[in-house]
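Quarterly update from the structural biology core.
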Amino acid sequence: MVTMNRIVVRRIVLLFLSLIAVPVCLSAQKRSDPLKPKWLTQKLPEAKTPLYSLVRTIGEGRNLSEARQSCMKDLTDFLEHNRGITVSSTLSGRETVRDDQDSHIQTQYSFEYKEDGRTFSIDSRKIDEYWTYKDGNYRCNVLYAVANKEGGDTNCDDISVSTRYGARGFVRSLVIPGWGQMYKGSYLKGGLILGGEAAFVAGIIAAENLRASYRKKMKEQPQHIKTYNTKADNCENIRNICIGGAAALYVYNLIDAIAANGAKRVIIKKKNSNLSINPISSPFCNGVNMAYQFNSK
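Predicted structure, tokenized:
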């Protein structure tokens, strides 16, 4: 039973080491982010206004620049196929978007096309990208916001990218260990936490049942009381070790759920305009001042 105690302790140590090693191994791989963004693995979020749509593109190349150019070609093909136009040129410019969660750079593009002898343009904005490198080849995925053909605008909503989830991951992990990690995109880590807690609970139940069985045999077979007492004590030690491991893993699960970054997600907020009404009084007139403030693009 002493050997069994050592095995249990060893497995607990290996579990915690594996949890620590998960983000290290992921970050060591050649990819832009440790986790695939949610806009790539899940359904795209809906725009708050009908003036634009979100488009996923994919491209490959021998270097990252070629892969990004391939994504731009994929977007051009999408516009020509879905909107029945022929893009004649593409103009680009850069703008920095900052918010209270993350800072990132988004790139504006303008696609020009001709129709009935007139030149029109479609605005597009690069929201985010994710790339991987394997066997000498880059694979890139880019998310764009593309304006509608007529009167479209990609700046009518606040579109940002964040790796933070607030208390939502914490609440989920509070209910089910590992759920918060899975919600944030860390499926491997969440699975290890959930499996570890299940193993600890199973160990607690099994050790307690064995301990109770040995205690019962001590009364039924007093001639072997010393042997059964030793076995019961060992089972109690294993049970206590499992209880401690389950508690430590649960605390780690909560801390990680609220502190660790998750997979990148797209946040779309509708821009609001403000109407203010204030009374005014002066030697020349009395009345009400009305001001309507539009958010700048």
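The first strand starts at residue 52 and ends at 61.
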